[in-house]
Design brief:
With 308 residues, this protein is α/β, with parallel strands linked by helices. The protein is built from nine helices and 14 strands. A hairpin with a 4-residue loop joins strand 2 and strand 3. Bound molecules: threonylcarbamoyladenylate and magnesium ion (MG).
Length: 308
């Protein structure tokens, strides 16, 4: 991998325009936020979001935080309780992420929420991220801009060391101010639940070792209600077959065997299969390499029902 393929531009109006152009073309761009540098992509474009996973080499799909410029934009994507709105008014823009019920009408790629009915939303304070949100006019999905398994980047250098050669652009605004990922709070039910400790302390109890210890690993994922069978080369009676490459199926993740396209379509096809008349779901073999690893991990989790 040649790190010189990645440009680093100090933040300026021209740099923001260039970053916005790349994002609207479906590329992920590293951008400073007040917490850590994020790897941002258009949250309405499934393939753009799949490129985040490809660049990070992340071996699983976790739901990502959607960044928007203000509370009005957030209300278009999610349903706020009075309590959630009060928190948003108090802490946004800033390092607080709220997990909320996703609106039916929200225009978000299903890979962003890993197929869940909730969405994690944050209004960042950093002027560069704010400028990028306004220049693109899109909600931006952004995990920390580091390769999977390495630590979160708080300087453009860190991003370059970790993702150099894998992304087209890093916007550089010097070291981040907060340096720690946002506090994550679920506000999708009666009771607020703290999902990740962070810069904002709301005095909520957090149990290390408890159920919500590491949202990245433990976040509930969408699992189909129907039994799921992997590495299938044909459908058994009553099964809906999700194809890939040479295995055609009822619908295909990617006829050409493209893993990026497959990742982008995965959750939509799982929902489609689940909503069909079929009694079970079978999925064609996906190669255990690159994004295929994340797809296989996700499918493996989906075969285990909650409570099992
Ligand atoms: O400060 C931050 O939050 C940074 C900057 C870039 O904004 N972003 C960040 O994103 O830390 P990420 O992808 O590393 O962390 C997102 C966390 C994951 O642990 C994920 O499981 C959780 O948010 N999450 C996202 N959507 C969720 C949902 N619907 N339900 C529960 N957890 C969710
Ligand atoms: Mg991270």
């Amino acid at each position: 991998m040649d790190a010189s393929n990645t440009r680093v531009l100090p933040v300026s109006d021209a740099a923001i325009d260039e970053a916005a152009r790349l994002i609207l073309a479906g590329q992920p761009v590293a951008v400073p936020t007040e917490t850590v540098y994020g790897l941002a992509a258009d949250a309405t474009n499934a393939e753009a979001v799949a490129r985040i996973y490809a660049a990070k080499g992340r071996p699983s799909f976790n739901p990502l935080i959607v960044h928007v410029p203000d509370l009005d934009a957030a209300e278009k994507l999610a349903v706020f309780s009075e309590q959630a709105r009060a928190l948003a008014k108090q802490y946004w823009p800033g390092p607080l992420t709220l997990v909320l019920p996703k609106r039916e009408s929200a225009h978000l790629a299903s890979i962003v929420t890993a197929g869940l009915a909730t969405v994690a939303i944050r209004v960042p304070r950093h002027p560069a991220m704010q400028a990028l949100l306004r220049a693109t006019g899109r909600p931006l999905a952004a995990p920390s801009a580091n390769a999977s398994g390495s630590i979160s980047p708080t300087r453009a250098d860190h991003v370059l060391k970790s993702l150099g050669g894998r992304i087209p652009l890093v916007l550089d605004a010097g070291p981040t101010q907060v340096g720690l990922e946002s506090t994550i709070l679920a506000a999708d039910g009666e009771q607020l639940r703290l999902l990740r400790l962070g810069p904002i302390d709301l005095g909520l109890a957090f149990e290390p070792g408890g159920k919500v210890q590491a949202p990245g690993m433990l976040a509930r994922h969408y699992a189909p209600a129907k039994p799921l069978r992997l590495d299938a080369i044909d459908a058994r009676p009553g099964e809906y077959l999700i194809g890939f490459g040479p295995v055609a199926g009822d619908a295909s993740l990617s006829r050409s065997g493209d893993l990026l396209e497959a990742a982008a379509r995965l959750f939509d096809l799982l929902h489609q299969a689940d909503a069909s008349e079929a009694v079970g779901i079978a999925v064609a073999p996906i190669p255990a390499e690159r994004l295929g690893l994340a797809i296989r991990d996700r499918l493996g989790r989906a075969t285990h029902r909650e409570g099992e």
